[in-house]
Amino acid sequence: MTSFTPLIDSLPSTVPFVGPETILRRSGIPLRARIGANESVFGPSPKAIAAMQEAALESWKYGDPEVHDLRAAIARHHGIGIENVTVGEGIDGLFGLAVRLFVEPGVTVANSFGAYPTYNFHVAGFGGNLVTTPYVNDHEDPSSLLDLAKRENARLIYFANPDNPMGTCWKAGVVQDLIDNIPAGALLMLDEAYHDFAEGSVPALDMANPNVLRFRTFSKAYGMAGVRVGYALGHPRLISAFDKIRNHFGVNRMGQAGAIAALADQAYLKSVQQRVARAREKIYAIAQFNGFGCVPSSTNFVAVDCGRDGVYARKILEGLATHGIFVRMPGVAPLNRCIRISVGNDENLAALEEALPLVVKAAG
Amino acid sequence: MTSFTPLIDSLPSTVPFVGPETILRRSGIPLRARIGANESVFGPSPKAIAAMQEAALESWKYGDPEVHDLRAAIARHHGIGIENVTVGEGIDGLFGLAVRLFVEPGVTVANSFGAYPTYNFHVAGFGGNLVTTPYVNDHEDPSSLLDLAKRENARLIYFANPDNPMGTCWKAGVVQDLIDNIPAGALLMLDEAYHDFAEGSVPALDMANPNVLRFRTFSKAYGMAGVRVGYALGHPRLISAFDKIRNHFGVNRMGQAGAIAALADQAYLKSVQQRVARAREKIYAIAQFNGFGCVPSSTNFVAVDCGRDGVYARKILEGLATHGIFVRMPGVAPLNRCIRISVGNDENLAALEEALPLVVKAAG
User: Do A37 and B92 lie within an 8 Å CB cutoff?
Assistant: First the structure.
């Protein structure tokens, strides 16, 4: 039999990515609330939907491999150059490419313990050596992350602002300090997937800085998770490197058209932001009513603090699943005292409100 | 500045993938015939379009990361198990992953000189050592490919049947012989993107053979190039390895729904096959009228033999471009005496018929 590379052989065969469809197939319990993956139940702009439906008629054509029009629209939106923008198959796809640019066996990557697992999946996938520092007060901790990166001679630093899975956020000034203190030879991958929910969290886009790559997505506030469009912003030296390895025809045609339309409809984005803020308050209230705390959120989800350990939080999560309510939870202590509830529509949250007291009671 | 890996530094910065949109942007000449990328102008099944338009309404949801329902439909269609199927972002995306499973610097890959360049792009991208053997009579040559693989101790062998860019094809028995003679330790990547156009070219699907991976796509006969859905078939040992590295949420929701609907509409596929066969005859006739030969095609494109060298063929290609006719051509001699014309609709071929005599005359 043909040998895989030693790196491939070393990777775990377990699949960490369990979707709600899989849970449904296993349990047979119909979903009443799909509020576990930080998707936006409010959906994309109707104009984006219309653009995708129209593009479906032309879907026999490959999408533009340069993704020119969408990149130009993104560049205009941010007041930067098209050479500062690359588009990929969601942020996850871009993380795979970005990690591949810098990581080979022996290269160290610094991250927060418990931060976005898909990033770490890619670091492992290219043989990187992951080192971590704990969250502090449910925040990723910029100063200890910098210390760690310096001490361990990390080539990459991952930092999400706002954070996932805890939903916490630093002000722009703190992130700017982090940027200003990146150790020599290191690059910061700044994941801003949720920045649309967190006013004041975004430091200026400095495209002359060759040591920062910033990642954005249409999956969250723009409500297009199933469409698969994310982008990275940075110095042309960084952005052009993606062209050496990316799947040039990989961004689907409907996604390119839909993202252009979504970006043009900022009024819709604003309405989503308002609806998310209201739904967050409702989740806070439901949690409080059940004796749970909440980590104040700057995202479209809330880390609900179940007040004990990970075993108990998992009991709550599994209890909710029996009521057709799909939520997720952080993977490691102490974050895993929480369950992570994405904002839902009124129906979803009514289902949560109804089920949670029963689940808490049953959990004892 | 942060160091890329030495492998990334070694890769060329030039982008080999120039789409018709780029050509249009550069030339300003409106496209009259987009017949260069072997897309299907006949489009997807109307049922697939409807399914994608419907799925756009739910595009706030990530696609199923297991792509369960589409994999199950593919498995049923082929009479194999779901564990024999993985789905990715087009064949190109799957080639990237498949190559990554086996190739690291020092690993040798055997291919035909002038075969599908995107595959070689991925081999280079993971540091593989590409060795090639020439086409014989415009066919990829199984026996010299086997000799080469054996001599060079290749870990991977790429073989496309039917072939791209020449459109030639071997009967199933010849391919079965190739499979039966794969050297110990090697794996055959059998690209069957165009098999729907070539009856009698497909050897039986033997999913117990751990040394063959077969690649199929919805981009060609199913007319969904812009949707980005391809799949690989093989032994579970091979298929499950993709899960270690693939972008689990990468296959967009509309694509999953559209591909299921497309697969279910075999009557539409049949009608496309008939229209492609008719259009091919028309291209043969146009070529002949202009004094050009044709390589008999088993695909949805025709390699038109311009009868001289690559410089002359490029002159013809560039001449056609000035008339808004987008075609491509093979990259290396002696294949590049040809231009590659994809099947078009009546309008497209009328434009070709009108322009080609002028272009030939101007080329001298």
Answer: no
SS3 for A79? coil
Q: What pLDDT score was predicted for residue A274?
A: 98
Q: What is chain A's Cα-based Rg?
A: 20
The residue-averaged pLDDT of B335-349 equals 98
CB neighbour list of residue B8: distance below 8 Å, 6 or more residues apart: A100, A101, A102, A241, A244, A245
Q: Domains, chain B, ranges and CATH?
A: 17-43+267-363 (3.90.1150.10), 46-264 (3.40.640.10)
How far is the C-alpha of B313 from the C-alpha of B319, rounded, in Å? Answer: 10
Q: If you ran DSSP here, which 8-state letter would residue A243 be given?
A: T
pLDDT at A272: 98
Instruction: Give me the pLDDT at residue B15, please.
Output: 83
For the residues of B182-226, what is the DSSP string, one character each?
A: PPTT-EEEEE-TTGGG-TT------TT-TTEEEEEESSSTT--TT
Nearest to A226 among B60, B210, B225 (CB): B60
- Share above pLDDT 90 across residues of chain B, in percent, rounded to a whole number: 98
Within 10 angstroms of residue A287's Cβ, the number of other Cβ atoms is: 21
Which helix (H) or strand (E) segment holds residue B319: the answer is: helix B310-322
Residues in chain A with CB shorter than 8 Å from the CB of B42 are 60
Interchain CB contacts (distance < 8 Å): A and B? 264
Q: What does the pLDDT look like over A204-226, one tens digit per residue?
A: 999 999 999 999 999 999 999 99
Interstrand relation of A212-217 and A187-191 (parallel, antiparallel or unpaired) = parallel
Write the DSSP assignment of B219-274 as a string of letters. SSTT--TTT--EEEEE-HHHHHHHTTTS-TT-S-HHHHHHHHHHHH-HHHHHHHHH
Task: From chain A, pick out residues whose CB is under 8 angstroms from the CB of B11.
Answer: 244-245
- Looking at residue A246, its amino acid is R
Q: Percent of chain A, pLDDT > 90?
A: 98
| Backbone angles phi and psi of B251, in degrees to 5 | -90, 115
Q: How confident is the model at residue B67 (pLDDT cuts 50, 70, 90)?
A: very high
- Give residue-wise pLDDT tens across range B76-99: 999 999 999 999 999 999 999 999
Q: Of the candidates B5, B37, B258, which has its C-beta nearest A62's C-beta?
A: B37
Give the helix, strand, coil percentages of chain B, each rounded to 5: 45, 15, 40
CA distance B232 to B97: 11
Q: In this structure, what DSSP letter does residue A45 have?
A: -
In this structure, how many other beta carbons lie within 10 angstroms of the beta carbon of residue B80?
16
The whole-angstrom separation of Cα B299 and Cα B195 is 8
The β-bridge relationship of strands B325-326 and B293-295 is unpaired
Beta strands in chain A (DSSP E): 33-34, 85-88, 108-112, 129-133, 156-160, 187-191, 212-217, 230-234, 293-295, 301-305, 325-326, 338-342
Residue B319: CB atoms within 10 Å: 18
Mean pLDDT of A49-77: 98
Q: Is B219's pLDDT higher than 90?
A: yes
pLDDT beyond 90 at B14: no
The pair of structure tokens assigned to B356 is 């080609």
Chain segment A107-166, per-residue pLDDT in tens: 999 999 999 999 999 999 999 999 999 999 999 999 999 999 999 999 999 999 999 999
